[in-house]
């Protein structure tokens, strides 16, 4: 039997204030009311474990591995600081004790936590200009040195790697120095933080607050290696968003939206704007916002019986009652009586007249003699059910626990039963001629801002099509598919029952986890249910436990919600871009998304050209986010998701990229915002207050600024579709005669993949691809020691091939690029 993983969800306390709802307790709190707590005649075993918000600190990645291996699921919001990893957790008292035993430091309770100003998370970009002298033998390399400003404050992010970084005795340290501008000396030495993930050395990195922009930096290893590099700018300052046009219409969404509101508005948009919008209905219906009616009846432990109805609660299961009856007499057999929806279990008596029915016996009798009313009956959790069952004080009603709404939740009954998910398709030409963009929001139910961000983007498209030239260019040249909530069942459960619900509502649990106290722990993590890099294949970040927040499901693509995505991209093959919108954390990432922990073996990394295209697109998208109110998604939070966040086995992005060639982004909106009043970074949450300080964390501000980014992604796709410019490339320092060995590399005019040979053969698409020196670093360096001829061609992200070369044909033109490095004999 697999060990049950403990659920520790990292998020901030939601205070939901807005036009839709207001929560009255921390995420993780169950709804108030008789169905949520043990009432008269109900067992205390039905009450989910209480949890509280705690701030935690781990000493580093090694402890993170231990905590994960112990069965704790750590969610978004982890932040790496120079002395470890910090986060917020909702945990039970028992879980807090277990965390302490593992060495986790509990920093305190409550909200208001702000990340350290030196919080670092870790990424570099291939477009950095922090280039040191070209050499294959450097022991220290600067991957990136980025400068950015936000709210009047400047920051320098540096990431460097040493070839001796894996050394642990003694641990290799690194120090950073920077100048104060061109021509000034290096100074202000600072110690950099060493980052190890899954036991593997990654790099040293830090984010530093500075008063002035430096021109250069110098990084020194404790083993003697030294590298210098130039500082580049991260994101564009003052890049005007579409909203800068006074005539541009925006700010349409005025509060959080539950799935019925989202889907209703999508269908209304299609009716209002039929020339540019329509609805595509996904074929696989969800399991539905519905549950079997249940009760845990009897004493505790071995004497408790868990009863589940055959019918869904709203279809009759909630009308069933079960009563355990004590009869006078001796030597009485166990029997079951059924009258309508009332079940009476007549408990057995032994020869002395004492109760004699065990929980296991009662469960078996209910399953076989309830005339089909009961689908499952079993002892409580892992108990054998050997305890003697006591009579109840009267009939116990079964309930699906969906009849109580949280205080402040939206009015109106939630539709029960399977749901059909509509896709809002927007584009002037919806015939496959234009590149398609898929925006998928709310895979995870508790993430409410992604849905409003996506809806705001759709509203901007249709309202500005006739009046704004840039919007018209987007709609005329792209084909956009919005899934405003890919998890409507779970989202409804988050709105109406349990704010912290992450997964869908499909219960795959066997008897040991099927009792109603586990109701907030059921469901499949839809973003672990895909086919590439799955936990089924040994990758980390997906759980086999049905009560884990990262439960991957019983098999790949087991869930209708994930099957729908595959159906969509297979039916509409023009979809070339995808953004899976999540919260919170402020990351923007792509492949690789998962790794096998033993050796940290990732899924294949994209070719260098694709990686560069991702970085170029990210810079455009994030510059538009920044333009709204100076929110910066920092460079350490951009790149391959397994490097930025954690390993997420079986995620949707990798399935779409590797199986369909789609540029698939993942976006954790709602990241940390710099607070100049405190000098700290303020972390976000899954459900921030809708209205708040416009310069800090609020649902409204996040919706508007990240909608800017989604609009820019549409422009990226439109530009990609019109890109017919062929790339150019060169070998640096180039062909010629050299007196000794030389180091060379390729450079391209735009993000492009280079295929090359050095054996005299024609380069083809099967030839070696020019790769990075190391993951998340610029291109490799060739150390040439003898005369060598390079033959190559480049292909950009849109498929344009340099010099019209056709790698599939062996014609006489041979119009590939060539350069010969001649090494003179000494």
Automatic annotation (TrEMBL):
- Which residues, if any, are the signal sequence? 1-29
Gene Ontology CC? extracellular space
Its BP terms in the Gene Ontology are: proteolysis
Residue ranges occupied by any Peptidase M14 domain in the UniProt entry: 378-714
UniProt keyword list: Carboxypeptidase, Hydrolase, Metalloprotease, Protease, Signal, Zinc
GO: which molecular function terms?
A: metallocarboxypeptidase activity; zinc ion binding
PROSITE patterns in the cross-refs: PEPTIDASE_M14
Q: Which cofactors is this protein said to need? A: Zn(2+)
Catalytic residues of the enzyme: 668
Give a Pfam family name.
Answer: Peptidase_M14
Gene3D superfamilies found in the cross-reference section: Zn peptidases
The record's similarity note reads:
Belongs to the peptidase M14 family.
Protein name listed in UniProt? Zinc carboxypeptidase
Q: List the source organism.
A: Micromonospora terminaliae
């Amino acid at each position: 039997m697999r060990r049950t993983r403990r659920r520790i969800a990292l998020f901030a306390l939601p205070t939901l204030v807005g036009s839709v709802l207001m929560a009255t307790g921390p995420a993780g709190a169950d709804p108030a009311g008789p169905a949520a707590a043990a009432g008269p005649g109900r067992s205390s075993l039905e009450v989910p474990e209480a949890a509280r918000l705690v701030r935690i600190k781990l000493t580093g990645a090694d402890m993170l591995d231990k905590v994960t291996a112990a069965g704790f699921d750590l969610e978004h919001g982890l932040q790496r600081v120079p002395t470890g990893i910090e986060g917020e957790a909702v945990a039970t008292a028992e879980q807090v004790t277990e965390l302490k035993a593992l060495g986790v430091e509990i920093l305190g309770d409550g909200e208001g936590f702000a990340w350290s100003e030196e919080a670092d998370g870790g990424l570099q970009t291939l477009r950095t200009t922090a280039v040191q002298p070209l050499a294959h033998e450097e022991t220290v390399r600067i991957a990136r040195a980025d400068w950015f400003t936000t709210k009047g404050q400047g920051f320098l992010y540096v990431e460097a790697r040493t070839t001796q970084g894996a050394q642990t005795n003694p641990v290799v340290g690194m120090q950073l120095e920077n100048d104060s501008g061109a021509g000034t000396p290096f100074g202000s030495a600072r110690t950099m933080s060493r980052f190890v993930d899954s036991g593997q050395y990654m790099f040293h990195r830090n984010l530093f607050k500075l008063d002035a922009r430096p021109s250069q930096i110098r990084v020194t290893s404790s083993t003697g290696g030294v590298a210098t590099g130039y500082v580049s700018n991260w994101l564009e300052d003052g890049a005007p968003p579409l909203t800068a046009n006074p005539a541009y219409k925006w700010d349409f969404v005025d509060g959080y939206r539950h799935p019925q509101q989202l889907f209703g508005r999508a269908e209304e948009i299609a009716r209002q704007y039929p020339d540019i919008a329509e609805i595509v209905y996904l074929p696989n219906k969800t399991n539905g916002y519905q549950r079997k009616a249940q009760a845990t009846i009897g004493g505790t432990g071995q004497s408790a019986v868990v009863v589940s109805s055959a019918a869904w609660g709203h279809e009759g299961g909630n009308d069933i009652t079960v009563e355990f009856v004590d009869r006078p007499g001796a030597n009485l057999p166990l029997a079951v009586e059924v009258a309508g929806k009332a079940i009476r279990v007549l408990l057995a008596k032994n020869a002395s007249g004492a109760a004699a029915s065990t929980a296991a016996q009662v469960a078996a009798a209910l399953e076989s003699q309830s005339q089909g009313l009961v689908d499952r009956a079993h002892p409580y959790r892992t108990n054998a059910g050997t305890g003697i069952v006591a009579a109840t004080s009267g009939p116990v009603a079964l309930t699906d626990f969906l009849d109580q709404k949280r205080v402040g939740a939206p009015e109106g009954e939630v539709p029960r039963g399977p749901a059909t998910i509509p896709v809002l398709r927007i584009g002037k030409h919806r015939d496959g001629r234009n590149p398609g963009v898929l925006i998928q929001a709310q895979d995870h139910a508790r993430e409410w801002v992604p849905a409003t961000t996506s809806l705001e983007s759709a509203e901007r498209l249709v309202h500005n099509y006739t009046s704004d030239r840039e919007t018209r260019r987007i709609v005329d040249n792209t084909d956009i598919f919005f899934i405003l909530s890919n998890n409507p069942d779970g989202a409804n459960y988050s709105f109406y029952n349990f704010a912290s619900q992450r997964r869908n509502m499909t219960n795959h649990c066997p008897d040991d986890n099927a009792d109603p106290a586990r109701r907030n722990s059921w469901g499949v993590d839809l973003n672990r249910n895909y086919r590439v890099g799955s936990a089924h294949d040994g990758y980390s970040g997906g759980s086999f436990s049905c009560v884990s927040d990262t439960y991957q499901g019983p098999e790949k693509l087991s869930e209708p919600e994930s099957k729908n995505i595959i159906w969509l991209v297979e039916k509409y093959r023009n979809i070339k871009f995808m953004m899976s919108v999540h919260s919170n954390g402020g990351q923007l990432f792509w492949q690789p998304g998962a790794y096998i922990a033993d050796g940290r073996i990732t899924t294949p990394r994209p070719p260098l050209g694709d990686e560069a295209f991702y970085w170029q697109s990210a810079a455009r998208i994030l510059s538009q986010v920044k333009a709204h109110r100076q929110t910066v998604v920092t460079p350490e939070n951009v790149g391959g998701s397994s490097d930025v966040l954690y390993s997420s086995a079986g995620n949707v992005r990798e399935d779409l990229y590797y199986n369909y060639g789609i540029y698939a982004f993942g976006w954790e909106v709602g990241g940390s915002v710099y607070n100049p009043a405190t000098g700290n970074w303020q972390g976000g949450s899954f459900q921030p207050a809708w209205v708040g300080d416009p310069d800090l964390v609020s649902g409204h501000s996040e919706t508007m600024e990240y909608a800017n980014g989604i609009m820019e992604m549409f422009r990226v796709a439109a530009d990609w579709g019109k890109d017919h410019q062929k790339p150019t490339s060169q070998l640096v320092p180039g062909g010629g005669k050299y007196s000794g060995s030389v180091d060379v590399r390729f450079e391209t005019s735009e993000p492009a993949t280079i295929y090359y040979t050095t054996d005299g053969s024609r380069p083809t698409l099967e030839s070696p691809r020019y790769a990075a020196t190391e993951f998340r670093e610029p291109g490799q360096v060739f150390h040439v020691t003898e005369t060598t001829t390079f033959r190559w061609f480049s292909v950009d992200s849109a498929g344009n091939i340099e010099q019209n070369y056709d790698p599939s044909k062996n014609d006489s033109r041979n119009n590939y690029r060539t350069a010969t490095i001649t090494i003179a004999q000494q």
